[in-house]
């Protein structure tokens, strides 16, 4: 074999041997975690524990019941008008704004009427209660506002207690009835079965 070919062969053997040694060395240094040569890893993206208040609101839904012109606007001349309904509209709007700030899930329980007079309900209800419809996974607490206290509000609150929601709250100045005494009488009944009955100011603290 010519001398230059012999030299080239020797060099090739040396290079291949060095490559094997280098590969073995790199594997040991980079992947074994020894000798401080392991691949640096970024900080683990462990999920931060949710703050207690945030966790509470994430498990809460607000039911806004029948806040429609037929129920609260005297100009509509509707037979379904709740006499004191218009007075609570600003408080209901404020309660909804607070709920949005807190990330509370909002459920608008409404009725729709088509021109033929047939009821076409956006949220189909066969009872006064708004609680016997679709449920939301993970919701443990309910906050109820709207009209009117002796019918839809009361029945929804009673059903929520029967369905074992952890906390049921009716905001007393964000709900209304035909007369104040009817409203207060029903609030007392709900309070007697464990429903919390704060004002909006008390609830937002």
Fraction in helix: 40-55%
Largest sheet: 4 strands, parallel
SSE order, one letter for each helix or strand: HHEHHEEHEHH
Tell me the total number of β-strands: 4
Q: If strands are numbered along the chain, what order do they take across the biggest sheet?
A: 2-1-3-4
Tell me, what's the shape? globular
CATH T-level fold name of the largest domain: Rossmann fold
Number of alpha- plus pi-helical segments: 7
What is the CATH homology-level superfamily of the largest domain?
A: Isochorismatase-like
Structural class: alpha/beta
Q: What is the chains' assembly state?
A: single chain
Name the beta content range.
5-15%
CATH second-level architecture of the largest domain: 3-Layer(aba) Sandwich
Distance between the termini: 95 Å
Provide the CATH top-level class of the largest domain. Alpha Beta
User: Mind telling me the C-alpha Rg?
Assistant: 33 Å
| Overall mean confidence score, pLDDT | 78
Number of domains: 2
pLDDT < 50 stretches: 10-16, 33-44, 123-128
List keywords for this structure.
4 strands, four-stranded parallel sheet, alpha/beta, Rossmann fold, 205 residues, 2 domains, 7 helices
């Amino acid at each position: 074999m010519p001398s230059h070919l012999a030299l080239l062969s020797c060099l090739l053997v040396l290079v291949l041997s060095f490559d094997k040694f280098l590969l073995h060395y790199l594997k040991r240094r980079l992947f074994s975690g020894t000798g401080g040569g392991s691949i640096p890893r970024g900080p683990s993206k462990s999920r931060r524990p949710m703050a207690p208040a945030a966790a509470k609101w994430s498990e809460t839904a607000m039911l806004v019941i029948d806040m429609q012109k037929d129920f609260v606007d005297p100009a509509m001349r509707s037979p379904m008008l709740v006499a004191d309904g218009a007075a609570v509209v600003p408080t209901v709007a404020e309660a909804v704004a607070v709920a949005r700030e807190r990330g509370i899930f909002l459920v608008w329980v409404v009725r729709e009427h088509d021109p033929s007079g047939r009821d076409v309900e956006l949220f189909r209800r066969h009872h006064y209660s708004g609680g016997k419809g679709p449920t939301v996974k993970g919701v443990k607490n309910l906050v109820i506002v709207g009209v009117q206290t002796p019918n839809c509000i009361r029945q929804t609150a009673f059903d929520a207690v029967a369905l074992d929601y952890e906390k049921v709250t009716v905001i007393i100045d964000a709900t209304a009835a035909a007369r104040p005494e009817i409203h207060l009488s029903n609030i007392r009944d709900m309070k007697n079965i464990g429903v919390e009955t704060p004002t909006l100011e008390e609830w937002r603290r």
